[in-house]
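tool_call: predict_structure(chain=1)
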Amino acid sequence: MSGHSKWSNIKNKKAANDAAKGSVFTKMAKGITIAVKKGGGIGDPDMNFSLRLAIDRARSVNMPKENIDRAIDKGLGKGGVELVELTIEAFAPDSIMVILELVTDSRNRAVAEIRTLIEKHGGHMGEPGSVGYLFEHAGIIHTEEEITDEIELELIDLGMTDMVTHEGHTTIYTEPEKMHAVIKNLHEKGRQVEGSIGYRPKTTVELADSTKVETFLEHISEYDDVQEVYANLG
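tool_result:
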């Protein structure tokens, strides 16, 4: 279907490299805790789809079961600090637009630190709405397994809106409310996938030299409180 996103490819490769770092477990744990809270305090992944997705992501980087269980307990209020979600809009070098999703135990600290980090690497913070209008909410599913033409047609019927394949990695986009059905279909066919509700740029920008932007995005994504980085880099 459509073309690929350079930043999506960078993120996929970076995630594999970061799996060896302890810091990735901290990010995954925060995602699990938030998923429990957003799911109405339900700690059973069979009854909380967001939690199941968060656990699947954690398992993909070999996060130990005890870490997962501990993060679920925190979401259930069994110890730990209160976490909050933040959405930050920003501009990277070369006017590339960025949306950051953060999970933090201190809103004021996180905003101050992410602002400093953004400015240090040549970007600047945006006002609410200054970037968001160029993105749309979407179900975003990643897999490295083959999607045949037959399966693709089934997924379209279930709510897939686009599919991007590049260098053996496939990203499937869905309407947010239909992501569950698409993932269920893929699981039933034995496909290993990861999914989340996130942001997709409505249009992307191609740069002759994207080195500065890629460096900016990589540094921002390494900040402990940052869960996801979305950019309109084509």
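agent: The mean pLDDT is 90. Proceeding to next step.
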